[in-house]
Specification:
mainly alpha
């Protein structure tokens, strides 16, 4: 089993970890292990690209067609005068 030491951890962070461990009925060491396990699982998941995430978020709003591709277009500010 691997071991490592975390130096210069703020007292408030340590106190919050201790309270969190108590809420879950674990030792602080076990709580940190569980946090690290969960963090390592999340980093292995393939995250969808930004456009796919935006499309998924608004998929139920009734947009019927695809939005035009904007690659290469110069950015411009919105015109609210109309």
């Amino acid at each position: 089993m691997a071991q490592f030491v975390v130096r210069h951890l703020e007292d408030e962070v340590k106190a919050r970890l201790k309270r969190r461990a108590e809420r879950h009925g674990r030792s602080m060491e076990e709580e940190v292990r569980q946090i690290l396990r969960n963090a390592a699982k999340e980093s292995n998941r393939a995250q969808p690209k930004l456009g796919s995430r935006i499309a998924a978020r608004f998929s139920k709003t009734g947009l019927a067609g695809d939005l035009p591709e904007l690659r290469g277009d110069a950015a411009r500010s919105a015109d609210f005068s109309r």
